[in-house]
Batch of 2 targets.
Target 1
Amino acid sequence: MTWMAWTPITAVFFTCIFLTLIGMGIWQAISPTIPRRGFLPLETTRGDRLFISLLGAAYIHLGFMVVSDASIWIASIIALVWLFLVMRWG
Amino acid sequence: MNKITNNKAWFLVLPVFFIVAISAIIPLMTVVNYSVQDIFDPQTRFFVGTDWFRQVLEDSRLHDALIRQIVYTGSVLFIEVPLGIGIALTLPRKGWGVSACMVLLALPLLIPWNVVGTIWQIFGRADIGLGGYTLNLLGMDYNYSQNPMDAWVTVLVMDIWHWTSLIVLLCYAGLRSIPDAYYQAAKIDGASNWAVFRFIQLPKMQSVLVIGVLLRFMDSFMIYTEPFVLTGGGPGTATTFLSQFLVTVAVGQFDLGPAAAFSLIYFLIILLVCWVFYTVVMNAGKREEQ
């Protein structure tokens, strides 16, 4: 695995992503999602909302780096809030 | 009655999952790892956090390449999709003409990218090329290796020549799948040609068109070989698109960190556009069904 040039931060990042996917899979098996409509302008399932929040999180980080030189953790906090908002009310 | 679902079919997807994991997911994870480090060799690497991302996002060469890429991809879609639909509508529906047209249309698709570049490189030359020589004979001062506009148009026309057939073949397949009953009903109702196109042919072509447009978007957004062979990104940087800029950074300068950061931004752009497009078209389809 050394050829993949792992760092602790990226390892934690991917572990979180994989755990989320596995968790979502189990959740889906236990109680299947029902498409619904929240503040997003389209009907979404749980998986759709996760995808939207992850893609949004990536753009929040990029946008933050364009407008500010401050620590990237601020963007991560904003992204977490965004993830919560979309998953709960999206 | 409760429907019995058998989830064993998912095991059949496993081989595909493993192939995708090896060919796409693991390399993508490696790119993410590279994007946060300064790598000299596998043993000598330093964690730099988001430095490469910040550097790449502020790079004006990248901004220029991105604008060129967006204009190019927009032009490709704007010309190829209507042209492809138009040609598909005029193709014969039966007889020997069908096979003849299919073979003729498939020919450009069978030619490898670098050969297409070489064909057009020679075709566009003012001294020995048929196209370039004819244009100059007609009084146009055409030279794709010196004039940025000429280079731009040549790359665009080359792509249209190479890939419009794909849209045509997909649309034609969509058109062939429409049962005759639809046309007969339209005839009874006295529908105009435009109404037949708008309410029968276009909706029936929708799913193949989505695939066609997505393929053309991704391919033209990642175009590399053809402009590289034809113009080498020049004159100046007139036809340097994103992937060529990326290769210059990654292979030419061996700046793996910035190249990885840039690849991820590139990937995110494509992901976002494809997702938005797919969602909008599929939701529009659902609304029409309702």
Target 2
Amino acid sequence: MNGSPYILSQNNSVTVVMLKVLAALIPGVIAHVWFFGPGILVSLLLCSAFAIGFEAFILLMRGIPLKPFLSDGSALVTACLLALALPTLAPWWLYLTGIFFAVVVAKHLYGGLGQNPFNPAMVGYAALIVSFPVYMTQWAAPVGVAHTIPNLWEAFDLVFAGAGSISPDAYTSATVLDTWKTQVRLGKDAADILGQPIFGWAGGRGQESVAMMYLVGGLLLVSNRLTTWHIPFAFLAGITATAGALHLFDPAQHASPLFHLLSGGAMLGAFFIATDPVTAASTPRGKLIYAGLAGFLTVIIRTFGGYPDGVAFAILLMNVAVPFIDAYTQPRVFGHKRGGKRGQA
Amino acid sequence: MTRKLFTFNGGVHPEGHKDVSSATPIALMPLLPRYVVPLRQHIGAPARALVQVGDVVLRGQMIGAAEGYVSTAIHAPTSGRVVALEPHEVPHPSGLTDLCVVIESDGLDQAVEFQTLDWRNLDPSALRNRIRDMGLAGLGGAVFPSFIKLNPEGAGIDTLILNGAECEPWITCDDRLMRERAAEILQGVAVMRHMLGAREVLIGIEDNKPEAIAAMRAAAGGEVEVVVVPTLYPTGGGKQLAYILTGRETPTGGRSTDVGIQVFNVGTAYALYRAVALGEPMLSRVVTVTGHVATPGNYEVRLGTPVADLLQAAGGALPGSVGKLVGGPMMGFDLEDNAAPLTKAVNCIIVKHPDLFPAKPSALPCIRCGACARACPADLQPFEMYWFARAKDFGKSQSYDLFDCIECGCCSFVCPSHIPLVDFFRFAKSEIWERERHKHDADQARARHEFKDFRLEREKKEKAEKLAAKVAENKARDAATAAAAVTGGAESAADPEAERKKAILQAALDRAKKAKESVTPQNTENLPPTVEKQIAEIEARRAQADTRPEHEEGK
């Protein structure tokens, strides 16, 4: 019988891939704790627990063996990405609802691991921002802006018992993307807006540093070949080009490309979310088109749309186009003529 | 001298394990009491047996003659008696039996008289026929009859590449051969070059074989260039090596000769040297025995030696071994039966142990990570082909260029979901071949049916014409009789009216006769040329399906 190859590369499995992705998030999480307090740890923990619970429940319902699929780590990655994309210190049921949409609806109702056309974390995010816009705009304020930074126990308390007597204003603020948009529409001067305390040297105070740490983690992913350079590069290039063109056109109305790169979910999206292999384009040219357009859409939604950030909707919209993009960007096969007919879907 | 090397995309770096078997010199297997010589040791038609049970044969005597064009001869490995001519286990992934000549050795090892070949002066066609009758086939694994590849006519070959890459893990038979017999290999190369009229001769060797590189460099004159290539599986694939050394891509479905390159394995060059310089047909080859075995190494083995005897010579499999592999771990296959003999195609026997070849973990769903596409040396998108093969949508798999897959195994090797991708591709290919055969059968049935309809129609028409002719004849006769009755017999011939009617009658008869003649008796064997061409094409594909996939010389 021919069962070749009889050897497989070492230390290589879906679990290893997922764990490496999680490891690459660590610098960003540390920066988050540094600038916003330990609240993020609570949402990471909650989302992970909910995700594993839902995953196990659905696997049982579907009659799929628990062990290999629970240990693949994909639910954990989804949970952590969603937790990092959501405001911290939000009520626990917000995380529960988000994870339900991510793991149950976006992933398992479409067939489970590898079968989902839409990025699960972004489906969870989109479901929440459409359903609970108020909670989605109350972000933990950074050190230096917040009156108080809840410690770990206070964070648990806030998440499970609610704010109680403390006013949410004491520890939350709007995001810089939101602030910029609303105040520019009110006709405020760009320099005045950027002078507010929640703005840092380039984006949101604290947030810009977290974004830099996502960049560091993301570059580790690329250098370890867990993802290719195409998607992060094209996504960031798409943002830079679109935001740059708008900024050149009217600097009073449109923030600089650097602001767009370092605020909201841009860096997380570029390296960790748009790169989700299941839902992203797979050919080299396809990745460039997919991520470039996602970057473009991100800025367009941020600028002209009604939502505080555009990353989630941009990626979901481009997920729709993936089969089409892949079909028309098949690489040339060895020995085939350049420009010849390719495989078509 | 440095040469610009090209790099194909993808490839993998499996652990080499070369040092397990490469340290000791090639050992000669002792004479065995019994040899089992398959008549099919090459790609193409099996040789036609020239001996019968009870015949006495000598070493080097042709016992199977090339049958058809793509075929080559088979020879007796020693002197003795033919004790059986029967189906026997052979080393083939199917595990099926094949016709073998079983020779009981007389212990004398008497040889026929070998005649050296005056290759510089022999007529090229005669030289090729001699090489065919000496049974030469490519020793890299594809075992294509060498005399065909040595035919330069119309091919316009400017570059001869000698494949010493040996990129599969564990295998070291080419390495040892190059270290020990470099001068002889290069003499074989000289013959190849003469026959092909190649301008340039390149010998590609992976950089994990420094001793072989040094030996070959020392033996090579100024006209032959030994090129060191980076160790990367599957560099030893014929098309891959040709690309690395020249940058020329073999067109899809074609051979390297389409871009002016002919590739031979180093072992084939050595065999050619023995054929021309010693007059010795292909009787033996070097085989690596490695893995979980007492004394791993390389053995010069007579073709027809049962694997069990080779393992015994290597001290036997160590306790805890679990089966054997034929060939390397990337493209080889499980040996079903130790009784199977070594053939021209077998370059390596690996004794498996769970520590060396752990059981494969169960597969998870594909996450489209694209690792397979990045590893694919043919620039395919294996995960897309897999997706459709799994859904049994083979047409779609094919549209992703399934048939450009060389089954090198890189995709399966790197898959984090441990999906046996190559198994799916082999399955999809065989299903497509099967369907084409069905389609051929259906086409043939339709052609037969259509011909039957045509025949019935024609017969009906013939009958109608005959009837018409008869009616006309009767009418004419009646008219003539009537005329004769009126005018009288003597004048009747001159009667213009009767004359005219007679002419009409004659014309009708001629027509009927002609129509009858034009229809030669036919049956369904006489198919239109298009159908015959289709049959030939499908037969060719089937022949290809029976053999190993088109991974040319060497691995």
